[in-house]
Description:
Keywords: Coiled coil, Membrane, Transmembrane, Transmembrane helix. The chain has helices spanning about 5-60, 70-80, 85-95, 100-120, 125-150. By secondary structure, it is mostly helical. The chain has one domain (about 35-150). Helix 1 (about 5-60) runs antiparallel to helix 2 (about 70-80) and helix 2 (about 70-80) packs antiparallel against helix 4 (about 100-120). The radius of gyration is 26 Å and the shape is rod-shaped. The termini are far apart.
Amino acid sequence: xxxxxxxxxxxxxxxxxxxxxxxxxxxxxxxxxxxxxxxxxxxxxxxxxxxxxxxxxxxxxxxxxxxxxxxxxxxxxxxxxxxxxxxxxxxxxxxxxxxxxxxxxxxxxxxxxxxxxxxxxxxxxxxxxxxxxxxxxxxxxxxxxxxxxxxxxxxxx
Length: 157
């Protein structure tokens, strides 16, 4: 009977320490997941904004009749690089799920194709430019959908 009290105390202490360690581990995991979600959310917002800036800049170049062929080629390449979308794509490749990476690449490639067509002389009134714009609208809608899905944003009914 002399051992019953110390054994009960030790068992209670072990259970208490174990429960505390388990709670701390669960809290750490939840905080880590929250930070990862916040990081992806910020990255998605920055990448979407960069794509938007590129599209706007390319549209302005496509509507500028005052650029010579050589100036247009240089200008659209500069405009395409300025928002930093290439760098953000590399971050996406590390942090985002494959579905987001695929959709982001599709949207980016359409903007790159638009850049190349404008550099070759297409303007905002051309049918080729309009087709690329329509395809980009579809691609960016898909990109937003998969980003929202990854972030756990519920779709409205």
